[in-house]
């Protein structure tokens, strides 16, 4: 069975179309793999019956010559996307038992194109975190281990379940969301590929909101090509999301054939942080050398306001979260803890329903939006955000894409960084700028650290130019020749 779970999505699609493998066989192999590696805790809910029914329908459509672009491809869905008739929790107790009567646009697009639903993946509660240790449904275990060290590592977050499931070969691809790095950081921690598209590329309709001006859905998979295939299906204008862009969705996978010769690659000097680990610095240099070799020209650029990105993000994101999460009142969704009055019910429900990190964000967000502090914090952060976006506009005058490390470190052990929120927030140092500016960014595995853990590089591009981001990502993927595999995986 391991052969089927080791396929890339593109290979599986070819075998399905050629009728060399059936959707039912392919799905059964993944259902078995999920069961065998349940200890990773990558899924909150598995839907094996639904998956096999989807597969059966896919086999019928393939036989009838009516196959969609993802016909019979088994995928996992981050449990932040509402799925009609399947529990959706955002990894929070407050949504325990919530079964949406509607389907998110992104997941509906995948089913429209023939994909098979394996289940809902674990995440940090309400997508707040970088370690998948804030989930009410328990930690997710990274399928990778440090050499000679059996401790469980985090898969990154918040899309840790999707990342672990892709890396451990429990699915051919997964949906994820990225508000400050939640696709790219877990991709880097698990040796997988993840892209946060341009803000507005994918509809946010039916995705549980964290910070609406930053949230964006995207795919995770094991290759750049697989992400390109998935994004094409996920993306597209949706009248139900007023921030969804009415822009044609290109054939991202076709763009990969164009290579990178002549592309101008920017290297932001501000990202050479003091104290940057020598391993990450060397990987970055390696990436620069690879792209030069592939025919790109390299240009040092300035992103002078990047140093304020993290503090600005940790004001804007909690502010929006505190407003978005006001709807969880014990009346409309999920958990209800009764009290003597309506206020008491709200308090009891929210006190019991939200975990510590979510409560921290609500308090920070409420504080920065409060009358006396709005100008000092929230408004200031919004101004900084505009300056960060302008830095990129200037950069695009001289470069076509920007290369940076994806994360400042490799995966850490479960429990490490746990009692120090600020160290945890530093995980997002290289990723949040793209969210604040609304730009697409991809993380691609590029090497291993001294203990054998994957490290990733990030490529950021112009708004709605995911094609260039994919092309540069592919060049890195080809040069890196990353073939290392996690210790815990299907068939191993
Ligand atoms: N780690 C960041 C946070 O905790 C980003 C999360 C995300 O992108 N959803 O806010």
Task: Give a structural overview.
The protein has helices at residues 2-5, 9-17, 23-36, 48-63, 105-112, 160-167, 184-190, 224-234, 252-255, 278-293, 309-324, 342-353, 356-369, 374-395, 421-425, 432-437, 466-480; strands at 43-46, 74-78, 116-121, 173-178, 193-196, 216-221, 264-268, 297-301, 401-405, 441-448, 454-461. The chain is globular, with a radius of gyration of 21 Å. Helix 3 (23-36) packs antiparallel against helix 4 (48-63). It is α/β, with parallel strands linked by helices. It binds glutamine.
Short key terms for the protein model shown above:
492 residues; alpha/beta; Amidase signature (AS) enzymes; eleven-stranded mixed beta sheet; 17 helices; globular; binds glutamine
Strand content bin:
5-15%
Radius of gyration: 21 Å
Small ligands present: glutamine
Helical content (DSSP H or I, runs of 4+): 25-40%
Helical segment count: 17
What structural class do helix, strand and pairing data support?
alpha/beta
Distance between the termini: 10 Å
Give the overall pLDDT as a whole number. 96
Overall 3D form: globular
CATH topology of the domain at 4-259 and 406-480: Amidase signature (AS) enzymes
Low-confidence stretches: none
CATH architecture of the domain at 4-259 and 406-480: Alpha-Beta Complex
Sheet with the most strands? 11 strands, mixed
What's the SSE pattern? HHHEHEHEHEHEEHHEHEHHHHEHHEEH
CATH superfamily placement of the domain at 4-259 and 406-480: Amidase signature (AS) domain
Specify the CATH class of the domain at 4-259 and 406-480: Alpha Beta
Extended strand count: 11
